[in-house]
């Protein structure tokens, strides 16, 4: 999307640690190949910021899915993910590389691309709030499947310690919502997830909410297609949320803009008849 008269340059290459910060997640075949391009771009003077790849031990991070027994180094296969974060003025991306496991429906990597990666599989943002129910909209009105809320103290943090520049003793929470058809196994998990992060107000995050909204450059708007946009708008208004009128957008799709309780702006589009049929269980 291109704004005719941008309100500002947006958040630029500011770190992810901020109230209102948005980013997306994609799976990649080789994150170091992307990092190589980033290093060349930096050498040529491009404005960007990167966070070195972090290690996520899946047996500890998600024992219910991957088993809780720690692997024996240099004996067992290590089920893991490496996460590399690349921030540019118009893009804020977390690249994830799998090791020794796969999820066929969760990110389909295009191996013919210059930098083989998948479609966006996760949308993420961060807020500072003391309200544990700040993200209830995504369950109650949008109808996503809540998978769980993970409390992550500093001592147990993996990727988030470096990516979010955690302070010693600091705690945060990760809320996961999935597409309703997504299952509980690696073979049935699907793209279309929200990884939402809540920090307590005592963390005093920089406030960049106003700069990460429509009209500002960069990652400033998420769009979600729904089965019944009119019904979702009615439910959102009934919940006291601010919504625009329902009308055709620049793609000739019926849609509306909504400000959710966490302060984020969303565009909700009406799915076509064929899309709705493809979403049937």
Write the layout of secondary structure elements.
Layout lengths: L21 E6 L3 H13 L5 E9 H4 L1 H4 L13 E8 L4 E8 L22 E7 L8 H4 L4 E9 L5 H5 L7 E8 L14 E7 L22 E5 L2 H10 L3 E2 L3 E2 L5 E6 L5 E6 L2 H6 L3
Parallel strand pairs: 1-4, 5-8, 9-13
Antiparallel strand pairs: 1-5, 2-3, 3-4, 6-7, 7-8, 10-12, 11-12, 12-13
Task: Provide an overview of this structure.
It is built from 7 helices and 13 strands. The strands form 2 sheets. The chain has an 8-stranded mixed β-sheet. Strands 9, 10, 11, 12 and 13 form a 5-stranded mixed β-sheet that branches. By secondary structure, it is of the alpha+beta class. The radius of gyration is 19 Å and the shape is globular.
Key features?
five-stranded mixed β-sheet, 30% strand, 2,3-Dihydroxybiphenyl 1,2-Dioxygenase, domain 1, 16% helix, alpha+beta, 2 domains, eight-stranded mixed β-sheet, globular, 281 residues
Overall pLDDT score: 94
Identify low-pLDDT runs: none
User: How many DSSP-defined strands?
Assistant: 13
Number of helices: 7
**C-alpha termini separation:** 32 Å
Helix content: 10-25%
CATH class categorisation of the largest domain? Alpha Beta
What letter string, H or E per element, gives the SSE order?
EHEHHEEEHEHEEEHEEEEH
> How is the largest sheet built, in terms of strand order?
2-3-4-1-5-8-7-6
- Percent range for β-strand residues: 25-35%
The shape, in one word, is: globular
Whole-number total of structural domains: 2
CATH architecture of the largest domain: Roll
Outline the biggest β-sheet: 8 strands, mixed
CATH topology of the largest domain: 2,3-Dihydroxybiphenyl 1,2-Dioxygenase, domain 1
């Amino acid at each position: 999307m291109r704004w005719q008269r941008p309100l500002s340059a947006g958040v630029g290459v500011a770190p992810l640690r901020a109230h209102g910060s948005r980013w997306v997640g994609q799976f990649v075949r080789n994150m170091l190949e992307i990092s190589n391009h980033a290093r060349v771009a930096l050498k040529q003077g491009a404005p960007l910021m990167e966070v070195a790849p972090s290690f996520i031990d899946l047996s500890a991070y998600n024992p219910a899915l991957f088993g809780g027994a720690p692997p024996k180094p240099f004996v067992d296969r290590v089920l893991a993910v490496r996460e590399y974060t690349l921030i540019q003025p118009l893009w804020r991306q977390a690249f994830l590389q799998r090791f020794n496991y796969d999820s066929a429906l969760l990110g389909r990597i295009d191996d013919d691309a210059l930098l083989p990666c998948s479609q966006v599989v996760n949308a993420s943002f961060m807020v500072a709030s003391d309200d544990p129910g700040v993200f209830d909209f995504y369950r109650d009105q949008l109808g996503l499947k809540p998978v769980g809320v993970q409390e992550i103290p500093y001592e147990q943090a993996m990727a988030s310690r470096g990516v979010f520049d955690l302070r010693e003793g600091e705690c945060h929470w990760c809320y996961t919502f999935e597409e309703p058809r997504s299952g509980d196994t690696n073979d049935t998990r699907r793209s279309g997830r929200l990884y939402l992060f809540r920090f307590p107000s005592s963390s005093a995050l920089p406030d960049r909410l106003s700069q990460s909204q429509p009209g500002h450059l960069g990652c400033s708007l998420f769009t979600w297609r729904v089965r019944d946009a009119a019904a979702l708008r009615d439910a959102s208004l009934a919940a006291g949320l601010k919504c625009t009128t329902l009308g055709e957008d620049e793609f000739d799709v019926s849609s509306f803009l909504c400000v959710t309780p966490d302060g984020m702006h969303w565009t909700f589009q009406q799915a076509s008849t064929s899309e709705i049929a493809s979403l049937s269980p």
